[in-house]
Structure formats: structure tokens, C-alpha cells
Predict the 3D structure of the following.
Amino acid sequence: MPAPIRLRELIRTIRTARTQAEEREMIQKECAAIRSSFREEDNTYRCRNVAKLLYMHMLGYPAHFGQLECLKLIASQKFTDKRIGYLGAMLLLDERQDVHLLMTNCIKNDLNHSTQYVQGLALCTLGCMGSSEMCRDLAGEVEKLLKTSNSYLRKKAALCAVHVIRKVPELMEMFLPATKNLLNEKNHGVLHTSVVLLTEMCERSPDMLAHFRKLVPQLVRILKNLIMSGYSPEHDVSGISDPFLQVRILRLLRILGRNDDDSSEAMNDILAQVATNTETSKNVGNAILYETVLTIMDIKSESGLRVLAINILGRFLLNNDKNIRYVALTSLLKTVQTDHNAVQRHRSTIVDCLKDLDVSIKRRAMELSFALVNGNNIRGMMKELLYFLDSCEPEFKADCASGIFLAAEKYAPSKRWHIDTIMRVLTTAGSYVRDDAVPNLIQLITNSVEMHAYTVQRLYKAILGDYSQQPLVQVAAWCIGEYGDLLVSGQCEEEEPIQVTEDEVLDILESVLISNMSTSVTRGYALTAIMKLSTRFTCTVNRIKKVVSIYGSSIDVELQQRAVEYNALFKKYDHMRSALLERMPVMEKVTTNGPTEIVQTNGETEPAPLETKPPPSGPQPTSQANDLLDLLGGNDITPVIPTVPTSKPASAGGELLDLLGDINLTGAPAATPAPASVPQISQPPFLLDGLSSQPLFNDITTGIPSITAYSKNGLKIEFTFERSNTNPSVTVITIQASNSTELDMTDFVFQAAVPKTFQLQLLSPSSSIVPAFNTGTITQVIKVLNPQKQQLRMRIKLTYNHKGSAMQDLAEVNNFPPQSWQ
């Protein structure tokens, strides 16, 4: 049989193929020749054939028939054969195939080989694709090589040990003695892999974390030597000594210093040195500075050091590299709540990022800008954000409009400014605002009695000839219907009044009714406004009657019904028309987070209480009451009002899984649906009682251990606890939901109920999506009032979508630590 062609010739031949079909034909022909050679047990050219097979595998063609040939090459005594054999094993084999177990003995023999390069091949292969069975069998050999004096083998053994620990965590203690002297090594390769090994052990075991905290001074010394050492051609990258090792050490210091005062104190000085001495002109230096910033923010560092870290991120915002600017904005967004004043110093730079061409940077800058808004800068920030709303892409307008509404509601310096701002948003991006924008603005206008004439005049001018922004037209129609008499009389004092006749006002509303751009809802607003004007105007009542009667035969059923009812008012009940159509009274504000809410003040010291609505009265069905009282298996349960809206219809049934989903979500505390024998529970405003200028909650958890409340199907819920400074009976529970599966969990809703001797309130969650692979968490705050200091019990309900299926589960939490309720 002729000698097969060499790998180089095969590559050259394949590259000459002009079409995909021609390439496939060449590959199939060569694969047939390789199979024939394998069947004939041709030892001479086995290495060459496997190498060609690996190249075809890299091109995406099947090469599984070469797996056993790789094992034969590994068993060969020639180094060239072993090298190709191990490479083939790493590419073609994995732990899902039983074939890989056949090579365990070969790897064990090669780990004890007299040649270091053969040992290195075996270590690389085991560290790449070793299964848990292989790791258990060969861990002893790896640990032995970890203690050898050969630095080439030690660095490979350390990386292999990382893989062994990931596969079999219980073998971690086996490597503990070997790690003692690893950091004394002068070789940077060994140091690098040693730090990777220590990081892996600390992340997987709290005991190892406590054990390795004593190594902080040694790590600080190594990092200091790297910074202060002179030029070393072997390790220099763009003028910085071994940046890869520096980054790894900073990550390990971050883990060791987290929640530990002594370790954090020991590394404060070196972190300041790294932050001030690292060159920022090259990307290498920026990478080290970014890791330094993350470490400073994660440990218990000094306030001056945190300001330095935020200033570094501020310099990143001026960098020409888009990736660096994005990283800086993301990091500032995470720290803005803890170091608000330091981030505020870079406000102008952050606002400039709103003009960036990159949409990712633009979105991060928008989110960070809203986080920086407070009562002191509301006018300037809103000016910039409104300018951004004018010019941004459509996909930003909805989020930007919502953010402006929320900020204006919290920090508006005056009602006129508030009304002007929201009207500007409606004029600019009315089609993108959320559904509750119209009723919220109507409520704001109604409550601002002194602004009625000014508002109706502004709205009238805003919709003259332009009906494209439907929410704006709806608000304008409502206001004209309510305050049309003020518009006609020209009583506006805030700006120069305009002269408008009754007929001109009706012309506008009739134009809205017949406009092709008007939706059915907008036409309903306009028709109702016209009807209301029949009691505000005196000269045009007959015209109004005519317009209303025309729409009595409209093809729009909603519009037709309104018109028929209004016609009846004119004819049969005309004596009642004035009373029915009189002005709306001042509307009461309804909150969305239960009876009270602690408002984020973004750097200001005064929390703002929200208005509350008293519980609705009225009897409740006894069957529903009993269902609710059965939530924890007794008749002493009080429900919690979740903040996440639900679209479920009310259920009269008593199914436990539907129980929390049917709770009233209007934001006002729902009356407990209890039978006559069970007393009604009132909702005292306990969270704001005795509010003073001191912090509402402790900044640092006062030694209360956290608990795992739920862990099932990849979803994990953890509770951490704080106690209120102003009211010792209030416990603040922060839930953290994480997802270890490979797909995101969407539409996540957390709900809870407690016994009636407690009062419980859920604040809004940080998101509704739990990211996969534990790459992020959802946080949500629960506030519990426990005046009688009884042991806390809680029933939780979880609903979410995962892998295309709707999931829901109930669990009871009874393992609250005594410090959280005593």
C-alpha cells in the first residue's frame, strides 16, 4: 500500500477546493483511505493519519472512528506518537464516552514517566477531559507532582488539581499540604497557577477561605514586588510586569478580603499603590486598574480608597475605547447606591455618554443618569434627559419616559414644573409611555387646583392640529372637558392668556373624534369631554346635543353606548345632568408598594412618606376567607401584598396554589377576608414611626446569619437579615434568588404570607429574570413588624417560566435565626 499523503499536502489540497461539495468529496476520499489504514493496523503511519483526522475534525467533519487509534498512540513509547495521541484524546473524547476510561492506566503510567514532557502531556489531558472517576483514581499522582521541585511540572499539576477539585470537591483537602510552599516559588508560571488553585479552593469551601486568609500578607508582598520591580523582558507586557499574575492576585485578594476587616486592612495600602502607580495609557494597565476597582469595592475598604476607585472609573469614561467606557458605566451603576456622592462628581461625564453612538453605552449611561437624580440636581438632569428623549432611538424612548416620570414624581421642585415636564414627555414620546401615564397625569392635574387654568391652556395649544401623540390627546381631552370654562374665560395667570371661543374648543374635540389617528379610547375621552362641556358652556349646548346624537349610531360599540347614555341624559334626565357632570373632586394617591414605602433619596437625607389609601370596607365571601386562613394550616394568618402585578382573574375556589395570586394588588392594604369571628387586622404605618435623621436600617448586618429558604430545580432563595435602628420590632429581610441551570428563569414572582400577629411588606424586586449559570441574582426586600417578638414563620410562593413551561411552588420557612426575631 502506498504511503499516505502528509498533513501539509492534505491542507494544501483541501484549500484548493472551489466549492463545498468539492471539499466534501476530498474529505470523504481521504477518510476512506484512513479507515483502510486503520483496518490494516498500519503502525508506521498511524500518527500521520490521526493528525489528518484531527484537522478534519477542526473543519467540522466526523472523526469519531479515530478514538481507539488515539488510545493506541498514547500507549506507544514514542514521544511523537504520545503527543498526537493525547491531543486526539482531548479533542475527540470526553467523559460522556466510556472509551476514555481505557486510558486511565496509560495516564497513570505516564504521570510516573522519567521524561517531564511526557508527564506534562498526561497532566494536560487529565486537566482537560478527566472524568470524576479518573480524577479519583489519579488525584494521588497529581498531588505527588505538585510537591516536586520541577517548576514545569508544578504549574501543570496545579492546573490539573483545579480540574480535579471541580470534578470531585471532597478531594480538596488532599491538596492542602502541597499548597503551603506554592507561593514561595520564584517562577511566575508556578505562582500564576498556584493563585488559580487557591482561588478555586476558597470559592468552593468556607473552611479553606478562613484557612488561606493568613496568606494575605504574602500575596500583598508578591504584588508589591511585581509593581516595584524593574524591567524584566521575560514578564513585561507593554511596560507592565506580568499583568496576568497581577490580575489573578487581585481577584484572590477580593475573595479573601470580602466580609473580613483584618484582611481588608492588610491590603488597603497595596491596593492604593496599584491604583496610583499603574500606567493607564495601555489596555494592559486598564485591565489591572479595573480589577483593583472591583477589589476595593468588594472588600471593607477605607472611604478614601473607594473614592479613588470611583475616580478611576471616571477616568475610564474619558477613554476612547468603547469597551472600557461600557465597563466603567456598568461598575458605577453597581456602586451608585453605596457611594452616591463620589459618583455624583462625575455626573457631567456620565451625561456626555448619552450622546455616544454606541447603543450599549447609551443605555448604561441612561440608567446611571436616572440613578444620580435627586432633589438638588433634578432641573439640570431632567433638561439633559429630555434632550436625550428628543434625539434617542425608539427602543430607548419607553424606558427613558418611564424613568423621567418616576424621577419627576419623587423630586419635582414644584407642581408647575412637574406638569410641564410630563407634558414635554407626552409631546415628545407620547406613543411610547407606559399605560398608567395618562391616569397619573390626570390625577396630578386634578390635585393641582391652582394650576388648572394654566394646564388646560397649555394642553389646548399642544394638540392644535397634531393628534399623533394619543396619550397627550387623551389628557388634553379630559382637561378640556373638566376645565373648558377656564380656557374660554382666559383666567390664566402663569402665562399670557389666549382668546378661545366655545366653538373653537368644540372644533378641536370634534376633529379628534373624526381623526384617523385617534384610537377608540381617545374618541371616548373626546366624546365624554364634549358632554361635560354641555354644563360648562352656555352658547353651544344645541351643537353638543347634535354631536352626541350622531354617535348614537357609531359602529364603535363603546362609543355608541356612551352616546346613547348621554342622549338619555339630555332627554329623560336633563334635571340631573349638571349634578352628574360636575367637576371631579381631588383624587387620592394610591401607592403600589403597600401601606408605606421608603423612598430612595439618591444622596439626600430626607425620606419621603407616600400617601396611603385606607383599607376598603365591605363583607368578603366566607369561603375565600377560610381559604386564606388555611395558608399556613391555621386560622391566624395575614396575607402580604406583593408589589408585582398579576393578570390572574379572581378565583372563588380554595386552591392553595392560586391563593397568593389572587390578592388585591391595587397598592392599598386589602382588608383581610376574615369571618365574623376573626377580628380585622389594621395596617399601622409602622415602618415610618419615629422617623428621624439617623439611618433607617443598620449599614452592616449585625451578626445575624443568613439562611437558605428554598433550593430546588436549580433555583435558590437566600435570606439575609438586618434590624431597624428606629424600630427594634422591624426586621428587614433581603432575598437573593439565583439560578444554576443553563437557561434564564423569566417572569419570576416571589410572594409570601405570615401569621396575623406580624405585619409584612414586600418592596419591588430588582428584576423579573433570574440569569442562568448563577451569573446574577434578583434581590427583593421584605419588611416584617414583630411587636410581640414571636418566632417567625413564613409561607412563600414562587412562580416563574423556565424552558418554556410555567413553574410554581410553595414552601414553608421555619428556620429563621433567633437573632432575626428576638
